[in-house]
Design brief:
This protein has 222 residues and is an alpha/beta fold. It contains three helices and 23 strands. The protein has a seven-stranded parallel sheet, with helices on one face. Strand 3 and strand 4 form a beta hairpin. The protein is globular, with a radius of gyration of 19 Å. The chain starts with a strand and ends in an 18-residue tail after the last strand.
Length: 222
């Protein structure tokens, strides 16, 4: 727990969720939200002031505040990367949120500005880069590496010895075989089974469910 107040960059649902976790789980005060001046539509969000990112060092200086970039996977995680790097250049410390309800072994390395939610399992020798989001319920296998600014959605299985490249996105319920290499800036669709290496900027999809022509009232034995 830190006594320093926190500024969250972002004014969307993810930022509101991050504020909840930081305040409820880590007892940190969220002093304000921030956004680029051109994108500020309201002066408050979730009951707190919204300050322009261009002015945040004046209103909430890094000498007294930390900053957390609470954005999703826009621009294949490029927005989160850019704002994290800009905040560090301005002198901010970017803490990580790591749920007490996650299972993380003592030799797992985790970078800054990570968002690791409940029910994640991070096995021994795993490495999590900077700016990584692990939504709830993922399995990160032993000796696997998640590159900087990747976003892993819920209930993803990353098997042992897997490498996920920087800024990649992996959708819900995707699964990898062990010792797979997923390149940088890849997009892995929900439910995909990855059995071979994926090159940089590769896109992998799974067949979506198809609506049956038979309505539920005609199903027998259901």
């Amino acid at each position: 727990m830190s006594g320093r107040s926190l500024v969250l960059f972002g004014t969307g649902e993810l930022a509101e969720v991050a504020a909840y976790y930081f305040e409820r789980e880590e007892e940190r005060t969220v002093a304000a939200f921030s956004a680029d001046a051109d994108f500020i539509k309201e002066t408050t969000f979730a009951g707190r002031p919204v300050v322009a990112f261009e002015d945040v060092t004046t209103s909430h200086p890094p000498s007294t505040h930390d900053l957390f970039v609470a954005t999703g996977y826009a621009k294949i995680n490029g927005l989160r990367e850019a704002k994290c790097l800009a905040a560090r250049e301005r002198g901010y410390t970017l803490p990580s949120y790591i749920s007490r309800r996650a299972t993380i072994f003592e030799n797992v390395a985790i970078g800054w500005n990570c968002f690791i939610l409940e029910d994640n399992t991070l096995q021994p020798f795993a490495r999590i880069g900077n700016g990584v989001t692990l939504w709830s319920g993922n399995h990160i296998g032993h000796h696997s590496t998640i590159g900087d600014f990747a976003f892993i959605a819920s209930h993803v299985v990353i098997s042992g010895g897997v490498s996920v490249g920087a800024r990649s996105f992996i959708g819900v319920n995707a699964t990898t075989n062990d010792h797979i290499k997923i390149g940088a800036r890849c997009v892995i669709g929900s439910g995909a089974l990855i059995t071979t290496d994926v090159p940089d900027e590769g896109v992998m999809t799974a067949e979506p469910a198809v609506l049956s022509k038979v309505p539920s009232r005609r199903l027998k034995g259901f």
